[in-house]
Amino acid sequence: MPARNADHAENTHLVLIPSYNTGEKLFETVADARSHWLPVWVVIDGSTDGTGEALAALSANQRGVRVIRRSRNGGKGAAVLDGIRAAATAGFTHVLVMDADGQHPASMIPAFMQLSQRNPQAMILGTPVFDHNAPRIRVIGRRVSNALARLETLSGIGDVLFGFRVYPLAALRTIMESSRWMRRFDFDTEAVVRLSWRGVPAINQPVPVRYFRAADGGVSHFRYVRDNIALAAMHLRLIGGFLPRLPWLVARLLNRSSSKSFHH
């Protein structure tokens, strides 16, 4: 049986899983998430592997599971946007977004949801704790992207690429609908930077991450050349947005520093 959500959070917080051709890992991920939290919504982003049809059939007999199907693949951000629009219509205030490929531990869902309930204005960001299977080139690239994001926000954001996180729904929807970006692989990073610019605080929480080999059913749509070029272009765009905000960001940083000094 699925775990019982604390303090009626099932009325405000849901798990949202975007998926594109994830294969059997999707069903494992949904079952694992459902064992820790309800409701669980899945956005099938134009998948052609039959998982959308199969999951829709399975979910007909599973309480708290909803499948939203997109006719065409639009990217992770586009799938998340469809999901949060539907969630807002249903009255939810927060979404925990997690990947469909089994890398994110569903056992962490309750802790993240509870932290979000105590800090409803904040985004709860997973900070990955890698095992020995993590590709070294991905780890190095992540450090570069994180350093750039900390510069662009002048904040202590832990990680901008790890997709296990809770968002305040209204703030996320506002920044996404006001921009034509954040629809594909750029979603995770740009969403955090722009939310930080809007004053949404970040709470960083360590999360163990698992990398699966293809032989173990692992699925990755990351393409090193294509997606690193896209990330570089995104950071150039964000630097352009950072510069006019610099005086305000510096003032915010100084204010935080003075507040900490006062309390100590």
From TrEMBL:
Name assigned to this protein: Glycosyltransferase 2-like domain-containing protein
InterPro entries in UniProt: Glyco_trans_2-like, Nucleotide-diphossugar_trans
Pfam family, one: Glycos_transf_2
Classification via CDD domains: DPM_DPG-synthase_like
Residue ranges annotated for the Glycosyltransferase 2-like domain, each copy included: 15-171
